[in-house]
Write a structure and sequence with these properties.
single chain; 432 residues; alpha/beta; Urease, subunit C, domain 1; TIM Barrel; 2 domains; 8-stranded parallel beta sheet; 4-stranded mixed beta sheet; 14 helices; globular; binds fe (ii) ion
């Protein structure tokens, strides 16, 4: 007897009329037209069943703090960092935990069940670290929360920052972060990359650095990061976040850089919502888009994912934990409008992001965790177009969130009474 059988689902790879069988929290069979006795059977009515969404880049210590103590007037990264510096001394653990838990509720409702969050380790008190370790424990039954030790004030620029980062790792933070473009000089930035990668190698940890979050085409710390990943045998274990300077780099240099990144096994996370708003602020017109070269990186064989980065904090005033909104923005900024490109943007917030986080048991194959989301859309492109409703969200076979189907009631002469916001072709029945 199965615990759960989901029938008549469409999968992201295009297979239709698929059934997924679940027992003890795992997928035990995936087959077209499968029918078997189960404690619960769900008819997906042709809608898209996807592995849950994954956010590979977030800042949960700052989330939902918008307006505390004031808002970012210039909209720049640097004012955001300064504003966070004003907020930090006033942070209280209980309030930070409450905000993070609220965000995690939003995330679950949106089918977002794995988040890599940077946590600021600059401050000797490590208040945010202790708070997010507490949150990690509290949300563990439903969200994989992976923490990155992030020396926001600059590992070398700020006194005691490296020691504080190491203390955060000792407490159980599992990924080594960095911010080389915020160090005092390019040389110090490169030195920080080397030092932090060595710390990760010694401790057997993953690396995820904010890297070249700048419009400066000469900010080339991604080159050092790729070099260090190879030198230290960290291939496949290192991620460069943002890499926005690549947007402005000379094409000849990029033609050399892309194969170096691919060779080193370094993955890249772009943060479309944040990159399009924070970058280009010093430009008049034309204003640069400021997102890294996503399709070119993908074509070079680099694993590229999209992150949300910020929701209602010193850097970004909007957001709701919706990774389809992230994919939607990424698709536009990168002009990935072909069918292939749009599907790659869906992958960037699901399978590619899971690869960045080294998630185990992720996917829709037999043996994977039964952690998935049923979307009110028939394929990944429609899901992005509609930022589709999350009809049902399961974590290891347990239903943890559901939202009624979206249908607008119309009162227009000579028109249908219901508008389903689906494509022009016939839509699946809304029988869920
Ligand atoms: Fe970030």
């Amino acid at each position: 007897m199965l615990d759960l059988l989901i029938r008549n689902a469409t999968l992201p790879d295009g297979r239709t009329s698929m059934a997924l069988a679940v027992r003890d929290g795992k997928i035990v069979d995936v087959k077209e037209g499968l029918d078997a006795p189960a404690h619960e059977t769900v008819d997906a009515t042709g809608y898209l069943l996807s592995p849950h969404f994954v956010d590979p880049h977030f800042h949960m210590d700052a989330t939902l703090s918008y307006g505390l103590p004031r808002v970012n007037e210039s909209g720049t990264l640097l004012e955001g960092i300064a504003l966070w510096g004003e907020l930090k001394p006033t942070l209280k653990a209980d309030a930070l935990i409450a905000r993070a838990l609220t965000y995690c509720d939003w995330a679950v409702a949106k089918g977002l069940l794995a988040i890599r969050s940077h946590v600021d380790t600059s401050d000797a008190s490590l208040l945010a670290v202790d708070a997010l370790l507490d949150v990690k424990k509290q949300v563990a039954p439903y969200i994989d929360l992976q923490l990155v030790a992030f020396p926001q004030d600059g590992a070398l620029r700020s006194k005691g920052c490296v020691e504080n980062l190491k203390r955060a790792l000792d407490k159980g933070v599992e990924v080594v972060g960095g911010i080389p473009h915020f160090e005092r000089t390019m040389a110090e930035g490169a030195a920080s990359v080397k030092l932090l990668c060595e710390i990760a190698a010694e401790r057997g940890l993953l690396v995820d650095m904010h890297c070249d979050e700048s419009d400066d085409p000469l900010s080339r710390h991604i080159e050092t990061l790729a070099f260090e990943a190879q030198r230290l045998g960290l291939q496949g274990r290192v991620n460069g976040s943002h890499c926005t300077s690549m947007h402005s780099m000379d094409n000849y240099y990029v033609s050399k850089l892309l194969p170096l990144i691919a060779e080193s096994g370094v993955s890249v996370v772009a943060n479309p919502l944040i990159n399009i708003t924070l970058q280009g602020r010093h430009d008049s017109y034309p204003k640069r888009r400021g997102m890294t070269r996503v399709p070119e990186l993908m074509a070079a064989g680099v694993n590229v994912a999209f992150g949300h980065d910020c929701v209602m904090d010193p850097w970004y005033s909007l957001g709701s934990g919706d990774m389809l909104e992230v994919a939607h923005m990424g698709l536009h900024v990168a002009q990935m409008t072909s069918q292939k490109g749009m599907r790659q943007c869906f992958d960037a917030v699901t399978v590619n992001a899971a690869r960045v986080m080294h998630l185990k048991g992720y996917g829709l194959e037999v043996g994977c965790d039964a952690s998935f989301v049923l979307l009110q859309a028939r394929d990944p492109v429609e899901a992005i177009r509609l930022r589709a409703n999350r009809l049902k969200v399961w974590k290891t076979g347990r239903l943890i969130a559901q939202t009624p189907p979206v249908l607008a009631q119309l009162s227009l002469p000579g028109r249908p009474s219901v508008c389903s916001f689906m494509s022009q072709a016939a839509s699946p029945s809304a029988g869920l």
